[in-house]
Design a protein that fits this description.
- The chain is of the alpha+beta class.
- The protein is built from 19 helices and 41 strands.
- The strands form nine sheets. The chain has a 16-stranded antiparallel β-sheet with strand order 24-25-26-27-28-29-30-31-32-33-34-35-36-37-38-41. A four-stranded mixed β-sheet has the order 5-4-7-6.
- It is globular, with a radius of gyration of 38 Å.
Length: about 1000
């Protein structure tokens, strides 16, 4: 209840008390001063808790009755907001008086739900939000019809004129809440028809009516609010094409034609004159004019917008080296239907910022200041003329002065001076940023009044304004926010903060904080609504507050966030019943709207890479460019058994990969936050390595535990059956009988992932580490024995605000043990279990999965039991804000085993693949919300050369294939999405 409403009820109670006194003046005058023997309520059960009533009522048993106390009691009870009517009676009771308080409780809005046959749009959520009812607010009987009328209006705006809305309510006497349910039957949606266009249109109305586009390919479009507004926008676009930028297009009304179930919009259009923009002194494209002159966005023409456009154009030219550029405009009405707006540009000489010097700073390092300014010296690839303008100078001056002000330098001043023709070179500009810091003001003392909490010493120690620290209003604002948030989290919503600061000597300031804690508020109970499928036990273990806890907005908000994070609710509404009422204990309300129980996704894509070639041919062990279309399908059953668990079926099909999987996910296992159990079964048939086609049947159980915000631990058990298709194996299976034979792999493993990147999609700073250690042993149910380790370390260091140095190191090893006699460690591990590498995400000097050892006869890759890759990228902006460039160096290889790892850069012979391959290159990145689109061109400095065959697989087995010398190309090209690492 708002404060104005409380005042209304208080005045009403006061007038009611006067009315009662006037109606029975004689008895009250007789009762005045007589002792009170009892105080009773009618009805006996009250919406305000007994302890609250004892605090609010001024009556004391045995004390004399006073009319002033009656008045005060009525005011206080009305101030709680829990009553719609109060009457006070006094009646003889033995030797005293019994005070009887007759009350009518106030009802409050509880859960609001919309059900029925709803033809979207609008959705049930939109309908629920359209009601003028707020959960927790007072409810009056007339509110129900007003809410139903709002729903009907929304439905009609979307063409559902035949919709039926029925409202029902259920009163919860225990909590004095009203649960409201709207049952909607949308009926058949009306369709649009040709609109009526009125006004000074300047364009023939029939042409405008057709331009609205209300008729689709075969029939009139549905009369939804979106379609109606789209038609208005289409008319505006027509006006814009004719340069009528001041045209006004509005919807006057919608006429419903019930017999045809059609809607005819009535549109008012005022075309206005044509606006012609002319530029003199410099060429400016129309797209640039539309970007920098706000007239095009706001669709209105006035002097302020034109002045703003001139300022934007001046900054545009100054950013391109014309630091003396001046832009002005004139307007001229050529005729009643044409207005010319001429922007006159005086460019002046083009300049180049060759030097930006910062001087006068002693308190801050020059690098700290450089990070905060936009003025830049010219670069080699970017900002060819540097960056400088009057607007940037003002902005940078303000930013530096604010930095000093935040650290106790209230008198700091910054002057930015640009000197032309620097060192006699015409057009060269040197910019000097001259800082005059002034004297730093320090806090001499800090006095904090009003904190009565037991943790007062801890609170004081965490304040920013400490004796000896810089004095600044920013630090005071930080302390204010900290203290108020602290008190609000502890259930003191009315806490206030004030401060005073007085000089206490030269460059010293005495600071005093005054805290008024106010009355504490507690949780009376937590009420949950909207659960139909979800079990309450799932909600209960995610609640961070319970009855008796402080009414903490922090805990309430975190609870709401945790409920959203379950991923099973479309909406979680939070409210406090009777929030403004003067009571200490409040009901906290959560209403959930459960999301759909099924989710489905379908996707298509393609891969272009060196994956092509004849499956039966041995001619191209490095592959030829091929095209592999890809389709994906996924369906999930959400909120399984009402416990927030998920069952997901996924399938992927392409010419090189066929996969199906079924995954069961149980989050927060055992009521432990961040502990997730996943059980997965999959079938995979893949040919991403040209040497073979592998078939994998796998089952795994994984337990993940989040240790902290940045660290996750994973424990897994995995069993898989791996086979190599002998029909298209590109090597003689007799040469490596174990590596190409079926195998059962049973592994237990543990992993740790630490992610401290600022943005995993496009990181600029931070660290990413991962360690994965697995043990494969026959004891676990397989037929192989080896240890597998894979680790990664990625570091992202900003060299300045625009340039990032990124490095990535990967190391892996497979170490077999208990190898049968007569077999070496390399052949003992099945080919599909080997490490494979090379390509856009590991080593760009190789095509995809082409690094490492090769079959000595055919030249096809075999993978290896060890890997070592090191990647280094220098990332920098290239064109505008969305296109960046990269210089990179990749080094590494796949090795036969860990003892074969070598940093040699030369291949000893055509059978030697255990050496370090290096590649350098350049790349372009286009930033998108899902990650950068990237194009990389790599030059491999020392790619391997090897023996290969020309012929077929049958010729390999029975003879006839021709031996040839082949090699990996020096140049590699990659196109992909997402960062390289």
């Amino acid at each position: 209840m708002a404060r104005g409403e409380l005042l209304h009820w208080a005045v009403f109670g006061y007038l009611l008390a006067i009315r009662l006194a006037a109606a029975d003046l004689a008895p009250l005058s007789e009762y005045e001063g007589r002792p009170i023997s009892a105080v009773r309520f009618d009805p006996l059960r009250q919406p305000v808790a007994a302890a609250e009533l004892a605090r609010l009522l001024p009556f004391q048993t045995g004390a004399p009755l006073r009319l002033a106390d009656v008045d005060a009691a009525i005011k206080r009870l009305f101030a709680t907001g829990d009553y719609s009517n109060i009457e006070v009676d006094a009646e003889p009771d033995g030797n005293g008086l019994a005070v009887v308080i007759h009350t009518t409780p106030q009802w409050f809005v509880g859960p609001i739900e919309v059900h029925g046959k709803i033809n979207s749009p609008p959705t049930a959520g939109h309908l629920s939000n359209a009601t003028p009812l707020d959960m927790g607010a007072p409810f009056e009987d007339g509110d129900l019809e007003r809410a139903a009328r709002s729903l009907r209006e929304l439905l009609q705006r979307n063409g559902l004129y035949r919709a039926q809305v029925q409202a029902s309510l259920l009163r919860d006497a225990a909590h004095h809440e009203v649960a409201i349910t709207f049952t909607v039957n949308s009926g058949k949606r009306a369709r649009l028809t040709l609109p009526t266009v009125v006004g000074a249109t300047r364009i023939p109305p029939p042409e405008l009516a057709r331009a609205a586009g209300y008729r689709g390919w075969f029939r009139w479009k549905p009369a939804t609010a979106g379609n109606v507004q789209s038609g208005l926008q289409n008319i505006r676009k027509l006006y814009n094409k004719q340069d009528r930028l001041t045209a006004a297009v509005t919807l006057q009304r919608q006429d419903y034609l019930p017999q045809q179930n059609r809607v005819r919009p009535v549109i008012a259009a005022d075309g206005g004159p044509r606006i012609k923009f002319i530029t003199e002194g410099a060429h400016i494209s129309k797209s640039k004019l539309e970007t920098y002159i706000p007239v095009f966005d706001i669709e209105s023409v006035n002097r302020d917008l034109l002045v703003n456009g001139a300022s934007n154009l001046r900054d545009y030219f100054q950013d391109r080296g014309y630091f003396d550029a001046q832009v002005d405009f004139t307007t001229r009405d050529v005729n009643p239907d044409l207005r010319d707006i001429t922007y006159t540009v005086v460019l002046g000489q083009r300049h180049t910022v060759v030097k930006v010097a910062i001087q006068g700073n002693h308190y801050f390092k020059t690098s700290d200041i450089s990070e905060r300014i936009y003025i830049r010296a010219a670069g080699f690839l970017i900002l060819r003329h540097g960056r400088f303008s009057d607007a940037l100078a003002r902005r940078d001056s303000a930013a530096i002065e604010a930095l000093y002000g935040e650290n106790g330098f209230p008198d700091a001043k910054v002057a930015i001076i640009a000197r032309d023709d620097y060192k006699g070179n015409k057009g060269d500009v040197a910019v000097t940023i001259d800082i005059r810091e002034g004297k730093q003001s320090l806090v001499s003392s800090l006095d904090v009044e009003g904190i009565t909490r037991k943790d007062r010493p801890t609170i004081l120690a965490l304040l920013a304004s400490q004796p000896g620290q810089p004095y600044s209003t920013e630090n005071i604002a930080t302390d204010r926010n900290y203290l108020l948030e602290l008190y609000q989290s502890a259930g003191y919503p009315d806490a206030t903060f004030d401060y005073s600061a007085v000089p206490a000597g030269p460059d010293r300031t005495a600071v005093t904080y005054k805290i008024v804690e106010g009355q504490p508020r507690n949780v009376r109970d937590v009420l949950i609504y909207g659960l139909h499928t979800t079990r309450y036990s799932l909600i209960r273990r995610n609640l961070l507050l319970k009855a008796g806890d402080p009414l903490s907005w922090t805990a309430m908000g975190n609870t709401q966030r945790r409920l959203y994070n379950l991923g099973i609710f479309d909406k979680v509404d939070l409210a406090i019943q009777n929030e403004q009422g003067d009571t200490q204990n409040k009901y906290v309300l959560y209403q959930m709207v459960e999301g759909p129980r099924y989710s489905m996704a379908v996707g298509v894509g393609a891969e272009i890479a060196p994956i092509g070639g004849n499956p039966s041919s041995l001619d191209n062990p490095t592959g030829t460019t091929g095209f592999a279309p890809r389709g994906t399908f996924q369906i999930s059953r959400l909120n399984l058994w009402g416990l927030g668990q998920t069952l997901t079926f996924a399938a992927r099909y392409s010419t090189i990969d066929q996969l199906v999987s079924l995954t069961y996910l149980a989050p927060n296992l055992g009521d432990v936050r961040g502990r997730d159990l996943a059980v997965t079964g999959l079938y995979d048939n893949i040919r991403d390595v040209l040497t073979f086609t592998g078939r994998r049947i796998e089952g795994s159980v994984q337990l993940a535990q989040r240790h902290s915000k940045s660290i996750v631990f994973l424990w897994r058990y995995t069993w898989r059956d791996v086979q190599v298709d002998q029909n298209n194996l590109k090597i003689d299976p007799l040469l490596i009988p174990l590596a190409s034979q079926p195998a059962h792999i049973a592994m237990i493993s543990g992993a740790m992932v630490q992610d401290r990147r600022d943005n995993p999609v496009d990181p600029h700073r931070g660290v990413y580490n991962s360690l994965d250690l697995g043990l494969v042993d026959r004891y676990f149910g397989g037929d192989k024995n080896f240890v597998r380790f894979l680790g990664r370390n990625s570091i992202y260091r900003p060299l300045n605000r625009d340039v990032v140095l990124a490095t990535n190191l990967e190391f892996g090893v497979i170490a077999p043990f208990h190898v049968p006699a007569g077999y070496n460690s390399f052949d003992y591990v099945p080919i599909p279990e080997h490490f494979f590498g090379g390509g856009e995400n590991s080593m760009r000097g190789f095509p995809f999965n082409q690094a490492g050892p090769r079959d000595l006869m055919t030249g096809f890759p075999l993978g290896g039991n060890a890997l070592l890759f090191q990647q280094t990228e220098l990332r920098f902006p290239l064109i505008g804000a969305n296109i960046g460039g990269v210089l990179f160096h990749d080094m590494g290889n796949i090795y036969t085993d860990v003892s074969s790892i070598s940093f040699r850069v030369n291949q000893r012979n055509l059978q030697d693949f255990n050496y370090m391959v290096h590649a350098v290159g350049v790349g372009v990145r286009y930033h998108t919300p899902v990650g950068p689109l990237r194009v990389d061109l790599a030059y491999s400095i020392n790619p391997p050369t090897f023996y290969g065959l020309q012929g077929t697989y049958q010729q390999l087995l029975f003879g006839g294939a021709t031996s040839t010398i082949q090699n990996i190309s020096h140049f590699q090209f990659f196109f992909s999405i997402g960062p390289a690492f």
